[in-house]
Amino acid sequence: SLELTEAAHGPEHPNTVFAHTNLASVEVREAHPAEARRHYARALEVLAKAHDKDHPDMVEPLLGLARLDAEKGDLHAAMPLLERALAIVNRGAARPEHEPRTKAQLARALDALDLDPDRVRELTDAAIEAWVRIGNEEEADELRAWRDHHARDQQ
């Protein structure tokens, strides 16, 4: 639990950051967005104190906060979080699954805002390629279906 991790390691230890991020993911699944937001924000706060602003561990909480913003319909708030996550991913230090997740999430946000269809296609194709590269055909197929449905809607 978060309390045990904080007691054992302190409030700013990397294990505590991961506990906040993991707990936030649980809160998302349990439909508690305010609690999830609090944990993602705390993870980012601790990471910002311990590392530079573009540390790879920041990607997960950035994506989580962007997802929460998107789910409440505030895609404009999600965009800078997604762009920041993409910048970190593009530096090449993030976990392998962060590349396709970030690119797909950003493509969907841009699409929903009717912004830059060329970039939507580019990000979507890159995300599909990344899912295939790391061996996740299921996610690649899901994104292909979204892309193909989106392409039909554009015609």
Summarize, please:
This protein has helices at residues 2-9, 14-29, 33-50, 59-71, 75-90, 98-112, 117-133, 137-154. With 155 residues, it is mostly helical. The chain starts with a helix and ends with a helix.
Class derived from helix and strand content = mainly alpha
Number of helices: 8
Rounded to the nearest angstrom, the distance between the terminal CA atoms is: 50 Å
Helical percent range?
over 70%
Question: What Rg is obtained from the alpha carbons, in whole angstroms?
Answer: 16 Å
Which strand-content bin applies to the residues?
under 5%
* SSE order: HHHHHHHH
Number of strands: 0
Mean pLDDT: 87
Would you identify the regions where 5 or more consecutive residues have pLDDT less than 50? none
Instruction: Please describe the biggest sheet, giving its number of strands, its sense, and whether it closes into a barrel.
Output: none
3D shape: globular
Give an overview of the whole structure:
- There is one protein chain.
- This protein has about 160 residues and is mainly alpha-helical.
- About 80% of the residues lie in helices and about 0% in strands.
- It contains eight helices and no strands.
- Helix 2 runs antiparallel to helix 3, helix 2 (about 15-30) runs parallel beside helix 4 and helix 5 runs antiparallel to helix 6.
- It is globular and about 45 Å long.
- The termini are far apart.
- The model has no long low-confidence stretch (mean pLDDT about 85).
